[in-house]
Amino acid sequence: MNLVVPPRFLDREEAARLLARKLAGRDLLDPVVLAIPRGGVVTGAVLARALKAELDVVLSRKLRAPMQPELAVGAVGEDGRVYFNPAIRDFLNVPDAYLEGEKRHQLAEIVRRKKLVRDIRPAADLAGRSVIVADDGIATGATMIAALQTARAQGPRELIAAAPVGSADRITEVRRWCDDVVCLLTPEDLGAIGEFYDRFDPVEDAEMVRVLREFGLAQV
């Protein structure tokens, strides 16, 4: 398929529609899209509709570097599995005690968000299925890798990471944790994911819940 990809996306919905076209025609078995909250839920819902897949979420949170909260030392998944970016961790010489405290903090946030999601729908069974883990972008790759670890432990038939944009070198690392990566833009120098969107407003809990609820109602 000849897919023309713009250098920037209008918003998450447009990016997800283009991503869905990239995934169209694949031999997926009983597919399920696992969206990484919160922005990834918007991306995931569009993908799931286009691919006629089930929609669910997989929760992962970045472990923030000391004094640099936007920088991910690693990430933790909802099952407690941790991924560390060794280059960042070693360069910053982050103490183990700090990382343990940050892990506890992020797991508490995961528990809070998990209750929001599971009040709407039960967790999908991933065993033997084609599973697509979706986000609106891959910067350090830490939250995606933590999410992939969680999904892999549940025995999917195949595991695919999908995002409209991702750092070229981190995509290489992400690929080690899944069967395939589908990404439309892979710049060598990626500063922030939002630079590749005209509109990249934060997705709040209320919008995440609304998207998940409306998707569920549309399937009834």
Structure overview:
The chain has 7 helices and 8 strands, in the order H-E-H-E-E-E-E-H-H-E-H-E-H-E-H. With 220 residues, it is of the alpha/beta class. The protein has one domain (12-215): 3-Layer(aba) Sandwich (Rossmann fold). Helix 1 (12-23) crosses helix 2 (39-51) and helix 2 (39-51) packs parallel to helix 7. The chain is globular and about 45 Å long.
C-alpha geometry: globular
Give helix % range.
40-55%
Q: Kindly report how far apart the N and C termini lie.
A: 32 Å
Summing up helix and strand content along with how strands pair, one would put the structural category as: alpha/beta
CATH topology: Rossmann fold
Main sheet attributes: strand count, strand direction, barrel closure = 5 strands, parallel
Based on the structure given, which CATH architecture is correct? Answer: 3-Layer(aba) Sandwich
Beta-strand percentage range: 15-25%
SSE series: HEHEEEEHHEHEHEH
Number of separate strands: 8
Q: What's the level 1 CATH class?
A: Alpha Beta
The total of helices stands at 7
Strand order across the biggest sheet? 2-1-6-7-8
Query: Domains counted in the coordinates: how many?
Result: 1
- Parts with pLDDT < 50 across at least 5 consecutive residues: none
Report the C-alpha radius of gyration, rounded: 16 Å
Give the integer mean of the pLDDT values. 94
